[in-house]
Amino acid sequence: MQLIKLKGVTEKRAKELQKLGITDSAQLIRCFPRAYLDMTDRTSILNVFHNDMALVAAQLVSVDPMNYYSRRKTVRARLVQDGVNFTAVWFNMPYLAKTLKAGEYLFYGRVQNRYGQVSLVNPTFEPLARNVRLKGLVPVYPLKSGLTQRVVRDAVQSALGVEDLSSVIPWELQKKYALAPLAEAFRTVHAPKNKTELAAASERVALEEYFVLLSAFKLIKGDAQEARHNRYTVTERQVAAFEKRFPFAFTAGQQAAVRAIYDNVTGPVRMNRLLQGDVGSGKTAVALTGMYMALASGFQAAYLSPTEVLAEQNFSLLKRMFPEYRVGYLAGGSTAKEKRELKAALEKGEVDVLCGTHAVLQGDVHFARLAFCVCDEQHRFGVAQRSALSEKGDSPDMLVMSATPIPRTLSLVFYGDLDVTTIPDKPLDRQPVTTAIIPARKYDDMLAYIRDACRQGGQAYFVCAKIDDDEGEVTSVTELFEELRARLPEVKFALLHGRMKEKEKTEVMAAFKRHEYDCLVSTTVIEVGVDVPSATIMVIMNAERFGLSQLHQLRGRVGRGSEKSWCFLLVGADTPAARERLTVFRNTSDGFALAEKDLEIRGSGDFLGTRQSGKFLTDVKNLKYSTQVIFTAKKLTDEAFERRLGLDAVKKAAMQKYESLKDIVLN
To answer: How many whole angstroms separate alpha carbon 169 and alpha carbon 635?
Structure first.
């Protein structure tokens, strides 16, 4: 149902909800709370540590006139609790200057205690009198623009009253496994009485989502394997000779991966394979060897990269590794003439290897005899992109590479349509990176160390979780960029984030590689593939906000040269759970071990519902559930298809899911 048709949702509110990516009632009920407040767990502002999240009842005395701070519109309110004065600050929410009135409120937000001045940053709030009706666990939703918690709560309740929440899981299986009604689970997730009830409801909703998701993969992959079209003539001796082009010997894991690819491309079945391995394990070398198998057999090959920065880097590598073949480059930044000439040569078969970005997927790009496709950094490409690339030739073999180690227990969720090959070996010839957790009191010392390192020719990355921060819970990349430039004026800083145009990002990254900048302040757009040997320091702000696997990828950006490298972790919310995870990360260098540990500590809800999966699994974002839910869903999916239970409804829902996920990437 359209948002505007929901009770209590005005046209203005509908537009505000759309800023959260919510366009209808179905999406609204899947906007699960990011946290729950225990209404009995209020605290005194005097008992809260710096960067802690707190629920505080206080008197709002006054609101200051609008002012500007770090180029952001700022609203500042004066608060009093039991005679203690403090402030609440909201950034980029100018409308609050007119919304806030004197009176008693309940605030929830991050506490900052700097130089004796205590403040709540971008807290959510509600008049205390209205909270009399709120009991038990109260949902806290993500907010944008003029939305308040009360508006979203009321809108969600309206949507729950009109949405069809019947389960797709066949009734026979619901009965056999004693599954709770899906509608009841949805209502409980949005209004739980206690944590036990919330946990059970979250698992039931997650089970439904995974059942549909795995059913979609089952339909996509199918039981029948596609017969081979392109006949390879390359010999094992030729492959072995090509491997000698690399300045290192292949590990046992690389050799096994090459063997799996060779057996596949010389066998009767088309290859559709995922190659995953740890940072530096040699996935690219294996992929190039696979491409050589096609080139030596007289075919064309394509190498697809997610960004122009990586595409240019890979283009240089391909020219170096395939000197006897013609290598072309196609990206959005190419000139019209370059594109036109390259496409004509490609279609005539005058280009053997095409390296590029998403521009390769355009409809006017045609190959003469494409037989082997590589998708670098697979998590940046969805099912549809892989399908579009494979349609450029006659059933070409597809090899996709994962930059992020995924727990083996979860690979069926992310890569249900692919065969999986893993390189288990430890990285070779990589400098060990020392990881340190930096307490707030050591922040200035760390900056001084980085300043000295830059003076001596070193470079550093600063990584933030967000571009902006509407909820005040993390340090934003724009905020940090301004702060660092003010504190270290002698150091040259560059800014990089996902909202910049591709050309701008490419120029900034290229300038950093040329050492025109000392430090790069960035979001996680630099987490994979970027290779700057002179960068020896990685600083990760609000490190507790990242999964261990993602931290591992970020750490992998340094330690690529001959100098000693460091990874500094700055903690925002220093909770026991965060401390445990970061201690594990500090002491572990194995990416797969970290991924498994991350899953064990955080649970699959956090692991899959946050940054790790991007938009891939938005329907379970913020839900907390165990890994067992995924295996139960797999069991139910297999049983439904084997017994042919309710397959018409299952297939309909599964294909709707496929249509929604095929253009989605994991980042």
So the answer is: 12
Do 41-133 and 236-269+279-404 have matching folds? no
421 sits in which H/E element? strand 419-423
The CA distance from 18 to 20, in Å, is 5
- Going 189 to 192 to 194 to 197, the CA torsion angle's sign is negative
Give the start-to-end residue ranges of the domains of the chain: 1-39+149-163, 41-133, 171-223+636-661, 236-269+279-404, 433-589
Question: Whose CA is closest to 294, among 348, 347, 226, 373?
Answer: 373
Task: Tell me which CATH code domain 433-589 carries.
Answer: 3.40.50.300
Question: Is the CB of residue 630 less than 8 Å from the CB of residue 416?
Answer: no
Ramachandran quadrant class, 38 (left: phi over 0; alpha: psi -120 to 50; beta: rest)? beta
Helix (H, G, I), strand (E, B) or coil at 104: strand
CA distance 78 to 149: 21
Residue 556's nearest CA partner among 587, 527, 593 is 527
Separation between Cα atoms, residue 219 and residue 456, nearest integer Å: 57
Q: How far apart are CA 273 and CA 286, in angstroms?
A: 12
Dist. CA 188–CA 403, nearest whole Å: 37
What one-character DSSP code corresponds to residue 466? B
Helix, strand, or coil (residue 602): helix
Q: First and final CA of the chain: distance in angstroms?
A: 29
> To which residue do tokens 């036109």 refer?
340
* CA 127, chain centre distance (Å): 35
Cα angle, residue 366 at apex, residues 364 and 369 outer, rounded to 5°? 175
In angstroms, rounded to a whole number, what is the distance separating the alpha carbons of residues 667 and 656?
21
The answer to whether 451 touches 488, Cβ cutoff 8 Å, is: yes
User: What does the pLDDT look like over 121-138, one tens digit per residue?
Assistant: 888 888 887 665 566 788
Topology, domain 236-269+279-404: Rossmann fold (3.40.50)
CATH number of 41-133: 2.40.50.140
Residue with tokens 């009632």: 25
- Residue that has been written with the tokens 């179905």 in this structure: 26
Give 232-258 as a DSSP string: ----HHHHHHHHTTSSSPPPHHHHHHH
For the stretch 267-317, pLDDT in tens is 998 998 889 888 778 899 999 999 999 999 999 999 998 878 788 889 999
Decide: residue 457, CB within 10 A, 0-12 exposed, 13-18 middle, 19+ buried.
exposed
How far out from the chain centre does Cα 157 lie?
Answer: 29
Note whether 666 and 528 are within 8 A (CB): no
CA atoms within 13 A on the CB side of 515: 10
The pTM is what? Answer: 0.68
Kindly calculate the radius of gyration of the chain based on its CA atoms and give it in whole angstroms. Answer: 27
Q: Which of 316-320, 583-587, 598-602 has the lowest mean pLDDT?
A: 598-602
Cβ–Cβ < 8 Å for 273, 420 = yes
The whole-angstrom separation of Cα 350 and Cα 142 is: 53
φ/ψ of residue 146, rounded to 5: -95, 15
Work out the angle between the directed axes of helices 308-321 and 283-295 (0-180°, nearest 10).
60
Q: 280 phi and psi, to 5 degrees?
A: 80, 10
The CA–CA distances, whole Å, from 339 to 332, 346, 350, 504, 579 equal 9, 10, 14, 20, 51
Residue 9 token pair = 């949702």
Cα–Cα dist 473/52, whole Å: 9
CA 210 remoteness from chain centre: 19
